[in-house]
Amino acid sequence: MSVMESYRNYHCSMSDRTPVWWAMVDRPKLSSSTTHSLGQMWDVVIIGAGFSGLWTAHHLIKGNPNLKIAILEKNLVGSGASGRNGGWVSALYPAPDETLLRKSNTVAVKNLHHQLRNSIDEIGTFAAENNIDCGFHKGGTLVIATNVGQERRLREHMSDEEVILDAQQTRARINMNGSRISMFSPHCAAINPAALVVGLAASLEKKGVVIFENTAADLSSDKRVWAKGVELKAGAVVRAMEAYHSGTRDQIPIYSLMIATEPLPLEVFDEIGINNRETFADASFLINYAQRTADNRLAIGGRGAPYVLGSRRKDSRENFQQIHKKLESMARQWFPILDHHTFTHHWGGAVGVTRDWAPYLRWDGRYAELGGYVGDGVTLSYLVAAATADLICGNTTVRTTLPFVGWTNPLWELEPARFLAINSAIALSSVADAEEKWTGKPSLVMKALSPIIGK
Ligand SMILES: Cc1cc2nc3c(=O)[nH]c(=O)nc-3n(C[C@H](O)[C@H](O)[C@H](O)COP(=O)(O)OP(=O)(O)OC[C@H]3O[C@@H](n4cnc5c(N)ncnc54)[C@H](O)[C@@H]3O)c2cc1C
């Protein structure tokens, strides 16, 4: 092992496991819960203070300032995926249109994409109006092909909203080792998600929403909510726990891991570009994604950590060292100049994945459950939360007609078949990436896998 490698290993094991975003954020002291008791009558009780729960409260209180809303959070605001993600505010939707069209219609699918694009700007406007310094910058997004197989796949699957950039145009935006072409979409912003989530929580408190941190909720089978031994009486209940709703067959937690560099000198960006803070991903099946942060770090994420038997959440999966190391060496391969710089933060989190990769919002007149965003929940949670608020208020809007409303997902297989299928799919995604690299054709392995992964 070289001196450089042993230094890196040491650093990897000693570095900060807190998402880099929290290094740039002062957590506001939330105090609304100190003056309220759980046991009073609430109009709406929301379980989970991530983006889904907080945006639901935001949309509700906007039209109904007198509503009494309680949010119960097991840990602290944003301690789930919302405070540990890649900060892409994108218009992506995890399920392809073909899946949606099986149960929905072309107008609803078109409206969905339109609403997602609008939601990006609405989030940016909200942050600006509330002086939330989350580094929101809409520089678009690039998917970069590094082999002929990926290039062919990108060309085959691009939509009207995307354009192909040739090798030279790609290099003018991002100088990634081995890049051939890229696909650019203007519909993405980069943010510090932790700054947005705490800013959103603080803005809600000012409007009278009560947030109980360190308060785990128990939801009974008849949808009654208990916390700290007290039953919370409410007109409506919202389960906004996303990947924390686990151990069932309707959704599984899959881990995405991230690393971040120290703040990099501007000369590094003279070499690698990304000068409009475009978010970027490679076109691999394992999904590696990144952004240049507002303080000039690179924050890079990727999948690959194994799924846990029984769909249990396991915090140790958030720090799966093997994947963190793989991400570091991938980043240094993308941008060799990073060899002179340190990765200071290593962390991860779980995303909720349904059997058909389609997000859901189900509402029975008193109880709502929402989630299944896979890795696209930053914008999506805003939109799904808006539809949730519409349903609770009894309003029929374009949002209540979108495909995720009332969506029923097929169940995942029984264990251990599920465990074997998912972990094989994760392993075979790497095989499919290698296959595309060597054959120069879109992967047949991935084609065979699509019934398993639902895409
Ligand atoms: C590493 C990573 C990278 C990602 N990158 C991106 C990205 O770049 N762009 C994008 O669009 N999406 C991304 N995602 C997905 C996105 O972060 C999530 O879809 C989104 O944050 C989900 O928000 P949420 O509020 O539904 O869930 P969460 O933020 O997970 O919130 C759920 C909350 O519920 C709380 N909770 C759980 N159980 C209880 C209980 N019993 N009682 C009370 N509270 C409870 C949890 O503590 C948690 O705070 C990423 C996710 C991860 C993990």
From TrEMBL:
One of its GO terms (cellular component) is cytoplasm. It holds the Pfam family DAO. Residues 43-391 form the FAD dependent oxidoreductase domain. SUPFAM superfamilies: FAD/NAD(P)-binding domain. InterPro entries: FAD-dep_OxRdtase (IPR006076), FAD/NAD-bd_sf (IPR036188). This is Unannotated protein. It comes from freshwater metagenome. The lineage of its organism: unclassified sequences, metagenomes, ecological metagenomes.
